[in-house]
Write a structure and sequence with these properties.
alpha+beta; Double Stranded RNA Binding Domain; hpI Integrase, Chain A; 3 domains; five-stranded mixed sheet; three-stranded antiparallel sheet; 17 helices; about 50% helix; elongated
């Protein structure tokens, strides 16, 4: 049946038999196929380069609107006019291909776009990027999630699952997929945020065992120590460059493209932090041992997972060191607003009208006092006996 398709018609269309095709008068070859069970799918009938009459499924309605279906049909017809079979292009698309399109056209417009891009590049594409979309199965998603869970990052596993699901749904809406293979699949278990905080004894044991446990990776030793000293994320520490450092004024300036929330961040450097950073002329403080660029944070996570039994303490991650530092500063009496600025948590520093609009104080002095106090506390712990002295109080 040939009809000028409208949104209203598509919504109400039914089939009197096993299935019925409603061909669009606006775009020749485009049809809405309706089954007797109410399933509606867009198809394009065309004559291929070899002269054979063929049919291409563009996706289901209403996931793909009438306007999107017409656009996809016109793209496919353009491929036919160029002598290409549009079905081959669709079948050849991989997860990596869809991810590249998703990151460029959609994720980049989101506030969390940088974090999404990092998770795709770190956790999704390296594991399942080469899987053809036409062959994608739930077991591929499980394989990706298992790799993240094995390194002790359940929260990241949940976020990567949500990123993958969002991309696949986006692909369905565009017509790159007929359906989302992981719709109805449960999120990974154990996604509760970690609460691990190292005790003073564990900090002392860890610090003293690093030279032995990671004897062949000295940069990894320094990275872990800096995570504990500065309370910054492991990915921010591994990517540290000389240009970001102002050692004269003891400041580390992180540009927005390097932070989780995409906002610039400054970190006051204590004498202990400066000692760990060291001197040199290389662009990267921690260069990639296998090539150009910075030391990969994934290598830190994988290394820690592999050598956990060498430390003599309960399982921990690099992010647990950041939590330990912030908790330690809280125990020293550092105010929550200052901790929020140290951690670059805008949910704390810019919460509500007062802090987001009226209070523009950056707490740089307070951040320095807190980080230097924490460094002193750390050195006492490492030495074997540190007294807890709260911020603003003199030692007795």
């Amino acid at each position: 049946m040939r009809v000028l398709l409208t949104d209203r018609f598509c919504d109400r269309a039914k089939s009197s038999g096993p299935q019925c095709d409603y061909f669009d008068e606006s775009v020749s070859g485009l049809s809405l196929r309706v089954s007797n069970q109410g399933v509606k799918a867009w198809t394009l009938h065309f004559t291929g380069p070899t002269g054979t009459r063929s049919r291409l499924t563009l996706g289901r309605y209403p996931s793909i609107s009438l306007a999107n279906a017409r656009a996809l049909a016109l793209e496919a017809k353009a491929a036919v006019a160029e002598g290409r079979d549009p079905r081959r292009a669709t079948n050849a698309m991989t997860v990596s291909d869809l991810a590249a399109s998703y990151l460029e056209k959609h994720a980049s417009t989101l506030r969390s776009g940088n974090q999404i891009k990092r998770r795709f590049e770190r956790d999704i594409i390296p594991v399942i990027g080469n899987v053809p979309l036409a062959q994608f199965h739930r077991r591929d998603a499980t394989r990706m999630l298992d790799a993240i869970t094995r390194r002790g990052a359940p929260v990241e596993a949940t976020r990567s699952f949500e990123d993958l699901r969002a991309m696949l749904r986006w692909g369905v809406a565009r017509g790159d997929l007929d359906h989302n293979p992981i719709d109805g699949m449960r999120k990974p278990q154990g996604s509760k945020p970690r609460e691990r905080v190292l005790s003073d004894d564990e900090i002392r044991t860890l610090w003293s065992s690093l030279p032995t446990a990671l004897a062949h990776i000295p940069d990894c030793q320094r990275i872990l120590k800096l995570c504990l000293v500065t309370a910054q994320r492991v990915g921010e520490v591994t990517g540290m460059t000389r240009k970001e450092l102002d050692l004269k004024h003891k400041i580390w300036r992180l540009p927005g493209e390097r932070t989780k929330n995409a906002h610039p961040h400054t970190v006051a450097l204590s004498p202990l932090a400066i000692e760990l950073i060291g001197k040199g002329d290389d662009e990267w403080i921690f260069p990639n041992p296998d090539g150009a660029g910075a030391f990969p944070p994934l290598v830190v996570a994988q290394t820690l997972y592999r050598v956990q039994d060498r430390f003599g303490i309960a399982h921990f991650t690099a992010h647990d060191l950041r939590r330990t530092a912030l908790t330690g500063m809280a125990q020293l009496g550092v105010a929550p607003i200052v901790l929020g600025h140290i951690a670059n948590h805008r949910t704390t520093t810019k919460a509500g009208m007062t802090l987001s609009v009226y209070v523009q104080h950056a707490y740089e002095k307070e951040k320095r006092e807190a980080l230097e106090l924490w460094a002193d506390r750390l050195q006492g712990i490492i030495a074997g006996g540190a007294e807890v002295v709260q911020l603003g109080r003199g030692k007795r």
